[in-house]
Amino acid sequence: MNRIYLDHAATSPTDPKVVEKMMPYFTETFGNPSSIHSFGRESRKWLDEARGSIANLIGASQNEIVFTSGGTEANNLAIIGAALSRKHKGNHIITTEIEHHAVLHPCERLEEMGFQVTYLKPDQDGKVSAGQVRNALREDTILVTIMYGNNEVGSVQPIKDIGELVKNHTAYFHTDAVQAFGYLPIQVKSENIDLMSVSGHKLNGPKGTGFLYVSQDAKLSPQMLGGEQERKQRAGTENVPGIVGLNEAVRLSVEKREAKSQLYREFKTIMIQSLKEKEVNVQINGDINESLPHVLNLYFPGVQVEALLVNLDLEGIAVSSGSACTAGSLLPSHVLKAMYGEDAPQLRSSVRISFGPEHTKEKIKRASEKLAEVVRRLM
C-alpha cells in the first residue's frame, strides 16, 4: 500500500539535509559549549552561528534567541516567565479561546496562582480582531498572548495590527508561531512582537528543538533552574546537534517558503475541486483565503469523524481530527467549539488535512479520490 501522510501540522519528517548536517555533532564536535577548552569552544562556535543565523532571518539580534526543547517549553517560558517577572506591574493576561493547549494550560495555571485571564472569542472564521484586544486591555494587563496561525483550522490572526496596538501599552506581546513560522514572512521588530515561540519538528527539523525569541527589552522569570546557559533564561547544556539541525531546517524553510506556500494553496484547490467533482458534501472550516497555506480543515455533514479517520487509515491516508479520541469517547475540538458553539455538528464531523514537501499534485489528487470514496461509503 502506498501510504500518504497528510498530518504535517502534527509533526513532519526530518529533512535528509537536516539529518546530514547534524551527524558530525554527535561524534566529532561533541564538546559542552560551556567548556572553555578547544572541544567546548568548537561547539560554542556552531551554537553561536545557529543563534545568529536564526536571529537574522526574523530581524532580531543574536542575543534575543533562547534555544528550547520545542514550542511547548517556549510557550511556558514566555507566558509563565513573563507573568511572574511582571506581577508587580499587574495580574491581567489576554489570550484567545483557540490557542494551543501549550498556551491555554499555562494560562490556567496562572489563574490558579491568582492572575486574571481574558479569553477572546473568535468569529466563525477562527479569527479575533485588534479591536477585541483594545477593548480587553486594562491598566494592569501585563501580557497579551495570541497565536500567529491556528493549528487546527489555519486561521491567521492580525498580528501586526495587534502588535501596533500593544506597543503603546506596557504589556508584553507574545505569539505562538509554531504553525506559522516557515509558511508566513515574520519579522519580529516591524510587527512589534516581544516574545515568539517556534518548534523545529513542524519545519522538517528534529523533534525536541525550538526557540523563543525574547526581545532585549523583555524580562522573564526562568522556569528551568541550574546553570547560566541561554542568557540565564533556560538552564541546561545546549542540544548542539539538535540546534544545528534546527538552524538548517529554519534556513531551508525560509528559503523555500514562497514556493511551497504557493504549491500548498494549489493542493487545497485540487482537493476541494476533486471532492466537489465526486459530489461530496463538504464545507471548509475557517477562511481558506486567509489561512496557513498547509492547513485545510474540512467538515463532512453526517459523517462521524472517528469512522472517517479509521477508514482513511485503512486506505493508507493519514489525517487528523480537531478532536481527540480517548478510550472510545470523542472530545470536541475547543477550536471548533469556540467558532461554532458547543453543540455544532462541525465538532463531530471535521478533519484536518495538512501538507508537506513530499507531496505532489498527483498524490493529492489520489488522496482526494480516496477521501471521496470513504465519505460516500460512510454516508
TrEMBL record:
Aminotransferase class V domain mapped to chain residues: 4-366
Signal peptide: none
Cofactor(s) needed: pyridoxal 5'-phosphate
Catalytic activity of the protein: (sulfur carrier)-H + L-cysteine = (sulfur carrier)-SH + L-alanine
Pfam families noted in UniProt: Aminotran_5 (PF00266)
GO MF term list: cysteine desulfurase activity; iron-sulfur cluster binding; metal ion binding
Keywords noted in UniProt: Iron, Iron-sulfur, Metal-binding, Pyridoxal phosphate, Transferase
EC numbers: 2.8.1.7
Family of this protein: Belongs to the class-V pyridoxal-phosphate-dependent aminotransferase family. NifS/IscS subfamily.
Descriptive protein name: cysteine desulfurase
